[in-house]
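Lab meeting minutes (informal)
Scribe: AK
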Amino acid sequence: MADTSPLDTDRNHLLEFLKDTTSFLDRLVTEKVDSKQQLLFRAQYHEDLDGAWKEFQANWDLSLAKKAIERTDDKALRAAGLHGAQLRLKLRLIRDLKDIFYRTGGTGVLRRLFKAVDNLLGSLGAVAGVDHALEEIKDLLNDLLVDRRRRQGLFDR
């Protein structure tokens, strides 16, 4: 009988989160518009964004993240809130914000979603040593978002 941890289900949820996040970011970079056909990223960066995303995809290795999550000790996952009800709540918030973004569009809700993703990625990186590449590319996308909260300046065109 193989040794299994009570947190194996949570580890699987964390791995699915990484897959879903990568897929979501791929959709954003590929489409570059929201459900209302509003531009998400500053147009002057589109070509460089495409190149950066291709590099990320070529270098991101989900199997390494999986190994890092699998070898992370249960106590460390618990200490970081990456288990049980805490993890379920974090994942639910991300899922709900993603659903709102798909329905309503807008960079405001996308920024909130990125913040929630950032919190989980940061904890996962700190305790499991998961490569920070996904967090870095997500941060870059956040920095390139068009800002509709104020009058557009030259930087936002």
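Next up, CB showed the second protein from the same session:
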Amino acid sequence: MHPFKSEADAEAQLARCRKDADGESAKVAEIKARLPALTKAAKCPWATLMSLVENGLLDQEAARAKEEVYSEGRWEALGKGWRRPWDGRNGSDFAKWQLKKDVGEEEEEEEAAAWDANGQKAEFRFSFLEPELRRAGIAQGAS
């Protein structure tokens, strides 16, 4: 026998199953749409990917070091009451940094940026690769 109590119960179960099947069909269509880009990425030479990652990591680390130098100089200037007219147009970047520090936004931004989408602490963020991969025709959104 069947587990349905009435014809309406069977039709409701059929409607739920069709809805689930439509949802899965949409997922399959999405994966099929991404397949050409993924195939192209799989064929990308290893040396190309390595150079993209190495250059991106070097750029990312250089930006981090630059920001660290700026931060140390800003904290020193703040502690000694100095102005920093070279930090932005007539010191505007320094003034913005002071306002963010006073409001407490800087720490929140740094904390949020330190965690990846999986809730793991991220040492390196590979978002710098997206434009290069798009240009190479590998990433989503490639023309």
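CB comment: The first helix runs from residue 7 to 43.
No objections, moving on.
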